[in-house]
Amino acid sequence: MKKVYINGLGCISCQKTFDSVFLEEAEIEKNQNVLTAKEPVYKDYISPGASRRMAKGVKNGIVASAMAMKDANVSNLDAIITGTGLGCIEDSEKFLKSIIDNKEEFLTPTSFIQSTHNTVGGQIALGLQCKAYNFTYVNGGISFESALLDAKMQLELDESETILVGGIDESADFTTQFFKIAKVIKSDDERNISILDKKTKGHVAGEGASFFVLENKKTENSYAEIASISVVNTLEPNQIENQIKDFLTENSLEINDIDAVILGINGDINFDNYYDDISENLFKNTPQVYYKHLSGDYHTASSFGFYVASKILKLQEIPEIIRMNSVEKRDYKNVLLYNQYLGKDHSFILLKQC
């Protein structure tokens, strides 16, 4: 089977990731529990007329995909595969509100049409006039990983050569309020949060769009090789260590072979215990990285972690703002990403320097 490489990336997030090298302008928000994406100049990518009719998630997806394709220097795609947890939730809320306000009469279908989960993939394809394979995965906390796994298998088997893969989610007011009531998002009275030190119920929410051009050939611009992906729906905290060991064994690696581990810690006391044991024991002598204090947490937040891992392997550096410990390595050759969402949908991704 052929190897799979990350040859281009584009990221719109709660940090200025669209015109910077690697988090050099990143800032930690200490006053808000719902982070919003920093918006690029949309008119550089989308006509103002079309932009006015698009939700922010769709616009961010289009821009991030365009950035990834420019970075990879490609114009033709064999597939577009996206992952999303809640889709275009902002338009869903608009449509539901119009049903209530208009007493289920005289409804316009625009918001409903634009609220479907595959809107982002469809709009990207329309803009490129791409009639190739186009699929959207809506698999909760492993939506992005599902898209990634689909692309990896197609490229390994030489069914495709160039695939655009992305993870996209947006926040919306009503849904955010419901999440706060359910203690999924931290309450409004919590401020100055350090997700490593002050752990309470709920996480800091975020949004973003991260897209990657994957190919089965290495180029001068290649960021990393995608060595392996594994997803497990349900695990207990005491099973994580053995799961990671088995995953590495399948890839002929040991714990000492991992040069950096990227963890999806989000400050939620209910679920961060999945990371605590491996952080304090299994990977205590390994450089540890976290990222959700910058991106916030959402169903496809792992795509931002994937962006971080890709940059670490290409630039061979870990910015201080995402370091969890002081362990250093001379070279970063193997990077492991582990993420879970609300105690379920555990994902393990192994990236290698290329």
UniProtKB/TrEMBL annotation:
The keyword Transferase applies. It comes from the Bacteria. The keyword Transferase applies. Residues 46-218 form the Beta-ketoacyl synthase-like N-terminal domain. Pfam families: ketoacyl-synt. Keywords: Transferase. SUPFAM superfamilies: Thiolase-like. InterPro entries: Beta-ketoacyl_synthase, Ketoacyl_synth_N, Thiolase-like. PANTHER family: 3-OXOACYL-[ACYL-CARRIER-PROTEIN] SYNTHASE, MITOCHONDRIAL, POLYKETIDE SYNTHASE-RELATED. This is Beta-ketoacyl synthase N-terminal-like domain-containing protein. The lineage of its organism: Bacteria, Pseudomonadati, Bacteroidota, Flavobacteriia, Flavobacteriales.
